Q: What sequence folds into this?
């Protein structure tokens, strides 16, 4: 049932007869009923659907980073929609006949807070008898400015594409810490992970561009079984 607002000639929402009323970008819009096409989708349509699914799946896995990272750019709609619109132009790479996410090009946050200088990510095997392997993130000390403060907080993302699983730590340490050890679960062992980081102001109101650091094969040392004394 359609709902009239402001009289017979005013705006309305929902279905009324053969038309549908809705609001888009603050304006009242009236469209005809959508017809379901009986034609099978073309190759290009199938390709676009595949790309949409790939990108939407990646971004949906990292919503805790996307929401603050793209909030200020979401003029209409959600931060997730803003992140999709920004990334869609360079989010894909084709390998053979298949499309994949172009991980080095992906961005989960934007803003004017300075990016980390000289940032690196290296594997830390951990103790063999403990198996507490992880990724050590590090960066260089930078001169303080309006957009670069020692109190800026660092967030990290490690994405396991084969398991379609994202590990996130938000506001983990401040910029002055210069490093952070990101522990990963044992079941990541043998997989390749993608490493990202970003800075935001201490109060979280200002964000910076996320940066892709590298792809790492993640190795977890085998657990050592203590030998019993004879």
A:
């Amino acid at each position: 049932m359609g709902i009239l607002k402001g009289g017979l000639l005013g705006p309305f929402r929902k279905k009324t007869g053969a038309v549908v009323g809705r609001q888009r970008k603050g304006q009242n819009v009236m469209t005809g009923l959508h017809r379901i096409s009986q034609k099978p989708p073309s190759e290009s349509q199938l390709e676009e659907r595949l790309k949409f699914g790939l990108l939407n799946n990646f971004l949906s896995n990292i919503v805790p980073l996307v929401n603050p990272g793209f909030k200020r750019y979401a003029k209409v709609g959600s931060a997730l929609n803003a992140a999709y619109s920004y990334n869609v132009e360079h989010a894909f790479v084709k390998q053979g006949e298949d499309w994949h996410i172009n991980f080095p090009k992906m961005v989960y946050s934007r803003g004017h807070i300075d990016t980390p200088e000289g940032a690196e990510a290296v594997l830390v095997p951990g103790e063999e008898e403990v198996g507490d392997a992880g990724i050590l993130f590090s960066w260089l000390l930078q001169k303080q400015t309006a957009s670069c403060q020692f109190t800026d907080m660092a967030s990290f993302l490690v994405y396991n594409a084969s398991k379609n699983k994202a590990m996130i730590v938000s506001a983990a340490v401040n910029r002055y810490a210069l490093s952070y050890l990101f522990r990963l679960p044992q079941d990541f062992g043998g997989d390749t992970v993608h490493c990202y980081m970003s800075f935001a102001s201490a109060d979280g109101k200002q964000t910076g561009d996320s940066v892709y650091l590298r792809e790492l094969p993640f190795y977890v040392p085998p657990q050592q079984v203590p030998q019993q004394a004879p």
